[in-house]
Amino acid sequence: MIPLLHIALLVLFVILIYAIIGLELFCGKLHSTWYRGSRNRTAGTKRSHTLWYGRVSFQMRAIGRFNGSIAGPNNGITNFDNFGLAMLTVFQCVSLEGWTDVMYWVGDFTVNDAVGREWPWIYFVTLVILGSFFVLNLVLGVLSGEFSKEREKARARGLFQKFREKQQLEEDLKGIQNFISCHFSLVD
């Protein structure tokens, strides 16, 4: 049981480290990105906006003021704005569920941004290699080893139980033989 706790702490450590790095690099990026399914296409001012989607930009003019908030992908759950949601986003990427979408959403900003266009793919590719392929395979290896240990313990318990039952039967048989021999010796 202890190796499973150690592996859980390792997975948590990897998620924490990548959440902190993602928080520093991509904080607020997913709220200013146009994504598929987005209903909010303006940001609230009356000037024109350039919205980036991949390598294609769209010039859009705001018609009026936007009174709501732009939630972001997955109704605002997928983001790097606070530590908890950053950990959830990193876990989503480690599980390989939509990590490419998150990488493209984060990378949809202009070239003049201070972060640059290289960091998103470096971050996400190392996250997938280290988090998914290495750490999750380590988890599966430890689970397999623990299962083998428990199966061996159960088999040993079963062998001991069989030995104990055989020993009990032999003792009972000796007792019955002693009883019969004593009874027949009294009858004679």
UniProtKB/TrEMBL annotation:
Cell compartments where the protein resides: Membrane
Chain sites annotated for binding Ca(2+): 97
GO MF annotation, one: metal ion binding
Topology in membrane: Multi-pass membrane protein
Top-rank taxon, per record: Eukaryota
Domain Ion transport: from-to ranges: 2-154
Pfam families on file: Ion_trans
UniProt-listed InterPro entries: Ion_trans_dom, VDCC_alpha-1_subunit, VDCCAlpha1
Keywords, in A-Z order: Calcium, Calcium channel, Calcium transport, Ion channel, Ion transport, Membrane, Metal-binding, Transmembrane, Transmembrane helix, Transport, Voltage-gated channel
Primary location: membrane
Gene3D superfamilies attached to this UniProt entry: 1.10.287.70, 6.10.250.2500
PANTHER family: VOLTAGE-DEPENDENT CALCIUM CHANNEL TYPE A SUBUNIT ALPHA-1 (PTHR45628), VOLTAGE-DEPENDENT CALCIUM CHANNEL TYPE D SUBUNIT ALPHA-1 (PTHR45628:SF1)
This protein's name: Transporter, cation channel family protein
